[in-house]
Amino acid sequence: MNKRAVGYELVVFVTQWGLMLLGFGILTKIIAPLNLVSPSLSIGQYLDAAVKGLIALVLSVAWLFIWDRQVRLYFHRRGK
Amino acid sequence: MASLGANTVAILIALGSFPVSLALTRFFMHWNGKHGIIGIDVHKLNRPKVPEMVGVAVPITLVLFAAIYAIVGGSSSIPLLAYALVVGLAALVGAVDDRLKLRGIFKPLLTLLCGLPILILGLTFPGQVYTSTLHVPLFGGFHLPVIYPLTILVAVSVTSNTVNMLDPLNGSMAGGVSIVAGGLLIGSLLVGAGSTPVGVSSMPIFLYASLMFSLLGFLYYNRFPARAFAGNVGQLSIGASIGALAILGRTEIASIVAIFPNIQNSFFFLSRIRRFTEHRELTSRPTKLLSDGRLADSEDPRAPLTLVRTLLIGRPAPENEIVSTIWMLFLTSTSLAVITLLLTGVPR
């Protein structure tokens, strides 16, 4: 077994896991309780959901970007 | 543990899926081989011919045992029907792809439709199939009445395709997903999933156990050196099963954590290729077979940085050793998933 590769992946997984919990924490405690669009509007509920969904999407992209940088740092440079 | 007896019964019924899957795998190995449904194991020097689409044994077993559990297990049949339809539809998409060789974009699009049974049955029977509250480890949870139903379709499509993409070596998918199913089964038992409001009994426990045992039955013939290949029919339905179970068993976040190796593999494949395509259509291969039978990094800068390639950078290895390493990665991610479930607590 390639112990070094498993070790690097372990670091990547644990970091991403921690960041994921943090991201869901931000969504739960900060983003979800906000009233971004007035619910009195006819489509207010849907607009509010769309904006929050967009914020979640941005957080997901940032999470994947960090994952990308980590893997390139640990693995890709070794191949060059 | 609200219903230890019910959980025990669920696991005992699910245990039957091991011999059934084993027998069906053996049957399809012969039938498919006889009817020319054969693939070539390109990671062996002698390039042996191996029966393809044998993974169909797994969705057949899963659907059969879901029906058995609905009859004898005393569980609500609506979520079991939703699960069986999702697995069956994904198997159908996979079978069509195996026979007609669809273009890469069609698989994610068609698998989007596979989540529809959960969505439709969930809207028809509110509270019986899914609830729109996402439970988050450490931080409680939040209600997603609009977004949650929409993400069901995406979740099933993502899990089915990501599992489909990480089956390049003998036993890598079957072994990896059985570790995931086993881990989530243990996690669900620890947090007392038998007391969840979705399904009146130990349905998630049963479904995770039946997925694990049916995969182990298939793995017996799919392990190195493989005598059976899963094909898209097996890979997509097994992936869809993980997605459906995440929703029905309310293990959404833990399931994402458990399939970290799949996510990494798919993300780096897509980020390099920048389109949905089939492995067979790639001009730049991530790995190459050496004359001594070991696999090595192809060192092609245009090839995607797949999970297998990351494990081979600067160090060629035999196929069975790489598969063991992949299983170790699944063991790691699944351990984190179990911790996630424990941090989430009993979903109510």
Question: What is this entry, summarized?
Answer:
Chain A is mostly helical.
Walk me through the structure.
With about 80 residues, chain A is mainly alpha-helical. Helices cover about 80% and strands about 0% of the residues of chain A. Chain A has helices at about 5-30, 45-80. The longest helix of chain A has about 35 residues, at about 45-80. Chain A is elongated and about 60 Å long. The mean pLDDT of chain A is about 85. Chain B is mainly α and about 350 residues long. Chain B has one domain (about 5-275, about 320-345). In chain B, about 65% of the residues lie in helices and about 5% in strands. Chain B contains 14 helices and 6 strands. Chain B has a two-stranded antiparallel sheet with strand order 1-2. In chain B, strands 3-4 form a two-stranded antiparallel ribbon. In chain B, strands 5-6 form a two-stranded antiparallel ribbon. The radius of gyration of chain B is 19 Å and the shape is globular. The chains are: A mainly alpha (about 80), B mainly alpha (about 350).
Radius of gyration of chain A: 18 Å
In whole angstroms, the N-to-C terminal distance of chain A is 22 Å
Strand residue content of chain A: under 5%
Q: Please mark out the parts of chain A with pLDDT under 50 across 5 or more consecutive residues, or reply none.
A: none
Rg result of chain B: 19 Å
Order of helices and strands of chain B: HHEEHHHHEEHHHHHHEEHH
> Helix share of residues of chain B?
55-70%
Features of the shown structure:
heterodimer; A: 80 residues; mainly alpha; 2 helices; 81% helix; 0% strand; B: 348 residues; globular
